[in-house]
Structures are given as structure tokens and as C-alpha cells.
Design brief:
single chain; about 240 residues; Alpha-Beta Plaits
Length: about 240
């Protein structure tokens, strides 16, 4: 059974799709990354029986940068296992202090080169894991119903959680704006930070993948994760 393409129009006032080589002082890619697009779909509808495969990102508003200075905490959230223990009551939650005085807490001011007034049209498919192919029509119908109503599991965001994303389901009867006349050679661009080839990979250590990003007349085609055009790192076992 062949998946149907699910199309969303996504927009927001601010966005930051951080280049991994410039993470300390955040500098955004000029357009949305495939992993950020996948996260928007997962925020609307996700189940462990399938994954989302982004196929195309259309730029509806040309990239415009804005310089921001933000306060960021120095400390890091603990591992997922520790957070799960806190949530289940098996361990006492520990605060991450924004105003602590040691090196593991407190805040620091960092520069961010973000995007403003962004708008994209995203195209993605549901890819069921083996044994769940027969449920594909139900998955797709549920996604369209939720997207049409504006429902989401958590607030979608544009790269950083403080930059909310707004969305609408694009259907055939909707008028379709043309992509912006943008042509960009992005070089090696972040594809994703998880191994998308198997279920449950988000519980593993990060597995970075990249691809050659190319925007032609406002359209960036995304290769399938299994394609040789996606360069994958070696996943480290925990």
C-alpha cells in the first residue's frame, strides 16, 4: 500500500534551525531542516507504529535574518532515563537552576542569528514499521483530521522551542501560493539526529546524518533516509 503525501503550510514570527558547526553562538540555516519538518508532523500526530518521511520543503517566504541576544542556562537536562524516573516518582526531581553560582548552573548570554517571518509548505509521508502496513489508511485519516482541526500533541516549534510554529492542512481546494524565487547551495546540511531506519531509535545515542542541500526555485527535494545521498554517522551504543 503506497503512502499518500500529507501537506502542511507552516509559518511563524521567528525560527532558528541551528547549524551544528556553529552551536555555541547559534546561526540558523537559511531554510528549515528535514529534522525540524519531521518534528512538526510528529507534534501533530505520532505513534510508535510508524515514522514520518519528509519528501519536500517549499520556501514560501525568502529567508530574512535577525540578530538576537538570549539568556541560556549553562546546565543540561539529565539523561532520558533520569527524567523518566522523576516522572514515575521513582526519584526526587532535581532543579536546574538558572541563577546558580557554580559552573554547572547559572545563565550566559549568547548571540543568535535567527530567521524572521518564515513560511514553508511541507510534504511528508507516513511510513509504517513492518507489521503495521494495513493500518496506514487509518493513520493518514487521523493525521488529516487532527491537522484540519489544529490539534497537536505538543506545540510545534521552528527549531527552538521558544519559536512556536503555526500550521494548517493543505488540501486540494486550497489556493496554493507559488514558492519564493530562492536558489541556494547549502552544502552539507543536517538531515536528522536519530537513526530513522528502525523503531525506537530516539531512545539511543544520537546518530547524525547529513545530505547535500540544494534549493532550486524555492523547492528543496529531500532524499529518502535509506538513499545513498544521505550520509550517516556511526551510532554509538550506550
Amino acid at each position: 500500500m503506497k503512502p499518500s503525501v500529507q501537506t502542511l503550510e507552516v509559518w511563524g514570527e521567528l525560527a532558528c534551525f541551528t547549524r551544528p558547526e556553529l552551536k555555541v553562538e547559534r546561526f540558523s540555516y537559511p531554510i528549515m531542516t528535514p529534522s525540524a519538518a519531521r518534528a512538526v508532523y510528529e507534534a501533530i500526530y505520532w505513534k510508535p507504529e510508524f515514522r514520518w518521511q519528509v519528501g519536500m520543503i517549499e520556501v514560501l517566504a525568502g529567508p530574512k535574518y535577525i540578530a538576537l541576544r538570549r539568556n541560556e542556562v549553562k546546565g543540561r537536562a539529565p539523561a532520558d532515563r533520569t527524567i523518566s524516573q522523576w516522572a514515575s516518582g521513582k526519584a526526587e526531581p532535581q532543579a536546574l537552576w538558572a541563577d546558580g553560582e557554580d559552573e554547572q548552573s547559572g545563565r550566559t548570554q549568547r548571540q543568535t542569528m535567527a530567521l524572521k517571518e518564515v513560511r514553508y509548505r511541507l510534504h511528508a509521508e507516513i511510513r509504517p514499521w513492518p507489521g503495521h502496513d494495513s493500518r496506514l489508511p487509518g493513520f493518514e485519516a487521523c493525521f488529516r483530521r487532527r491537522a484540519r482541526r489544529g490539534q497537536c500533541i505538543w506545540q510545534p516549534y521552528l527549531g527552538c522551542r521558544e519559536f512556536p510554529a503555526y500550521f494548517r492542512l493543505v488540501e486540494e481546494e486550497h489556493p496554493q501560493p507559488e514558492p519564493a524565487p530562492v536558489n541556494l547551495d547549502l552544502g552539507l546540511m543536517l538531515y536528522d539526529v536519530f537513526d530513522l531506519a528502525r523503531p525506537g531509535s530516539s531512545q539511543d545515542a544520537p546518530a547524525i546524518s547529513v545530505f547535500q542541500g540544494q534549493v532550486t526555485n524555492g523547492v528543496m527535494d529531500i532524499p529518502d533516509y535509506s538513499d545513498d545521498a544521505v550520509l550517516k554517522g556511526v551510532r554509538e551504543e550506550r
